[in-house]
Structure formats: structure tokens, C-alpha cells
Amino acid sequence: MKNLKMIGLLFLVSLQSIAQAYTPVNPNRVLVGAFPFQNFTYDARSAALGEAGIAISPDANSGLMNPAKLVFLNASKDSSKKEKPFGISLHYTPYYINLIQGMNLHALNTFKVKNNHAFGLTVKYFDAGGVEIRNQKGIFQRNFASKEFSIAGFYAKQLKNNNCFSVGLKYIHSDLSATIKPVNTIAGDLYFFHNSPLTPSGGTKKYWLNYGASLTNIGGKVSYNDYKKRTFQSTLLKLGAAQNFILGKKHNVLIFTIDANKLLVPTPSIRNFKNEVIAGRNEENITGIGSIFQSWTTAPDGLCEIMREISFSMGTEFQFREFLYARAGYYTQNKRKGDIHYITLGLGGKFKNFGLDLSYLIPNKQNIILSNAFRISLNYCPFK
Question: Which of 117, 181, 271, 281 is most exposed, with the fewest beta carbons within 10 Å of its own?
């Protein structure tokens, strides 16, 4: 609790890095957007795959990463059983436990699948801890709980050729500081998923490729009161593919997957001591929606810098008889655009309609603060 001031300081510095890229606070022009908790990975399965999950096989966690996949759960259901086409998943992550106690991530996803449609609700909650507010004389006045949360609804529709699109709309609330007015806004999401057929004409298919994409947190700029400049939402583009192989006669499955991630906010410009733009583009002249397109042309160092802003998530999963799952992954950023790298490991199990997933993160030496990070996911999913 007493470390909440550190959270606030880190948060304010991240905002300042957008508004004044001239200062040494952000010399490598690392991309920063509002509500970063929206882009955290909440489900343990994707977390164990290096945070890749756009194109992996559908499961009860899909509403968090790519709701377009949920439609295909219905296609794989055993029609001989009269199961209700309803699923739910719960997720928990202690956050930065090596630095601050009391910070946690929570998520809930519930969905329903019927014919070629799916719809559901996702709640994400970031508990940043609490702090005691005291006056100048040290007299206690009140407790302040620092938090952010979002409530999102989504709808998915299967189209021809095993393609599915999904749209979502969310409400976001952020209240991280006792001295800054809470922020409320809305944003939209778009998703796509292609599910290759498992049994094409001619017999059982031994391998197949799935792919997908998402564009999330589409919305206008937001203001944090104490800043004259408005901050871009953390619009994120993810492109992913997953190659699947059937091993042996028991239909054990081996998956290799990779996601490319790009934050679609303008690269901070280079400014002189008068705060005049001398390289790059003035972020103040770009709208929140416009940044989706214009962020590709704002980097002072051109295309090379844009490419450095793409991070990669990759992982592999071995499915043993749809009962036991072993996973490993790797996440990497360019050393000039965050320099975050870590290995992930995970296990999963399923008994009847219930599943449990666990993941663990092993960071590089430069990001030791991420050590001991783990995630837990529980789900109920009456599908194969």
C-alpha cells in the first residue's frame, strides 16, 4: 500500500513521455498509451505461449484474446450430448509481486454459442492496491483504492470458408490517483479468425494452419486532468498464425504459434528546448482514430524505427488426448523499444467440462522485476 506513490510516479512519467518526447525520460521513443491494462494477457494458456493466442485453437479463454474463435467451439461439439452451449472462465494474476504487494489482475469471460453465432461478456479488473490519505499534519483522512476496469460485450458471426468476424464494444474506467479525476471512456474491438477444416475430403488431415487478427482499443484520446495534452488509447494490432500437427493414432496435437504485435499510437516526436517538433510528426495534430493509419508514418527514423516497434510472441503446445497440455513460449521486444524478453512455461488439464491452466514467466536479467509472475485460469466449457 505504501508503494502506491511509486505506481503513480511511473504512471505520470509514462504520460509525460508522450507529451514531451524531447526530454530524456523516453530517449528511445518507446510507445505508450492510456489504459495499458487493456493489453495485458489475462489467460494462462496464452501467457504460457509467450502471450501468443490470436490463432491457437478455440477454448473457453478465447473471449479474452479473440472472440471470433468461439463460433468454432459449436462446430466441434459432440452432437450426441445435450449440453448447453454456455461457457465461463475466471483468471487471476498477481502483478509485479517482486516490487509491490497488493497489485492483481482479474478477468471474467462468459459466452454463449448457438449455430454460427457467439456472443458474450468480458470483465477486466486491475487492482493497483490502496493507500492511506493523510493531511499535512499526518492525520488520517481516508483510504484510496487505485483501480482500473473495463466491461466489454462482443458478437461473433461465422461466414463462408470457415472465416469468422467479431465486433466488441467496451466501457473503460480508470482511477489510479487520489489527485487526478477518474477517466471514463468507450472503445471498440475488431477480430478475425480462420479455422481450417479438420476433416477435408479424402480422409483425416494430419496438419492444418489457422490464422487470425485483432484490432483492439479503438477510440478517441483521453485526458487525465493535470495534463493539457490528451493521451492516445492503447490501440493494438495483432496478427497471428498457428500450425497444427496430429501425432500418432490417438490424435495428440502439437501446435506452433506466433503473433506479431504493434501498438498503433504515434511515435513520440523529437523536440528542441522550445518544445518545437524538429523530427517526426506533431502528435497533437493526430486524432485517436487517425493514429490507426498515421502511426505508421510518424517515426523520426522512418520505416526502420516502425519495424523496431513490432514485438513478437511465440510458443508451442503439446495436447495429450485432449486431457493434458504442456506449453512453452518466448516474448521479445527490440532493445531500443522496451527491451523486454522472457521465457514462459505452462501446464493445463481438462476433466470432463472443467479446465485448469497455469503459467510461469522467466525474465531476462534486465527485467528481473517480472520474476515469479504466474497466472491461473479456471474454466467451464461443455465442448470438445
Answer: 181
- What are 380's three cell numbers? 467451464
- Strand 252-263 and strand 236-247: pairing? antiparallel
pLDDT above 60 for 268: yes
What is the number of structural domains in the chain?
1
pTM: 0.86
CATH number of domain containing 339: 2.40.160.40
The band of 73, judged by pLDDT with boundaries at 50, 70 and 90, is confident
Give mean pLDDT, residues 254-270. Answer: 93
Whole-angstrom distance, CA of residue 55 vs CA of residue 250: 23
Pairing of strands 310-320, 252-263: antiparallel
Domain range holding 247?
4-380
- CB of 207 closer than 8 Å to CB of 246: yes
> Can you read off the three cell numbers belonging to residue 119?
456472443
Distance linking the first and last C-alpha atoms of the chain:
44
Q: How confident is the model at residue 227 (pLDDT cuts 50, 70, 90)?
A: low
